[in-house]
Amino acid sequence: MDFRKVQEPEKRKAIEIAEQILRLIREGEYGKGDKLPSENRIASLTGVGRPVVREALCALQIVGVIESKVGNGSYVLAESSNEVQPRILSLFRVNESPFETLQARKYLESGVVELATKTATFLQITDLEQILKEANRSLDSVGGEAGEELLAVYLNYDRTFHIRIAEIAGNSLLLSHMTFYCKIMDQALWRKLYGDFYTHSIQFKEAMGEHSGIVQAVKKRDTDLARQRMQKHFDNTIQRLIQQKSALQEMDLTVASLD
Known about the structure:
By secondary structure, the chain is mostly helical. It contains 13 helices and two strands, in the order H-H-H-E-E-H-H-H-H-H-H-H-H-H-H.
């Protein structure tokens, strides 16, 4: 059995595409190492646009079912288990916005950091390093189990770090987009999600370590490495979110239910 036309409402189309791919893997149509049809082919077979297919493939990649190779398509990495489908669905159920926001930031900021790597001055790089030092000192001063204070410290420095990179890139439109996304992620829903999957100061320090890796790539003027590390940082953020049982149980919460 091959792909079939999608009849679902607009908001469920990406879910349906992901479910179809999982079904085809379970039924043996595509095995480990097999190449999936192109985005264009899947879009044609299912009657949806390429952005919908891309969103479904991105979700499958995040949970480790497929691997997407730039310029070479998507390949099956693992069999489809009963545990995978709830994790896939969870990515689309957080009010629709968190997964979309993280995905948008991943690709926006990978371009932003690439530009910043080309334009950053010695003083600007030093400023980024200072932000990380202050962040780690502040996290150490709070320490222990994650709570409101520790979360507030991390979110403040995380926002400062990413905005500073956008400022260094020197493009006012990119900076405007970055500021917009940071405002979105200051909503109650995001604070709830971060509170669920960050349970200890060590996890915050790990995230700061990823920031440090990004700065080192910028310092080396390695645009490819900076872009890769930024994308990996957002992949890891989503992984932290979906691996927490408490977060999975709360995935279908709406902003209204958190107020």
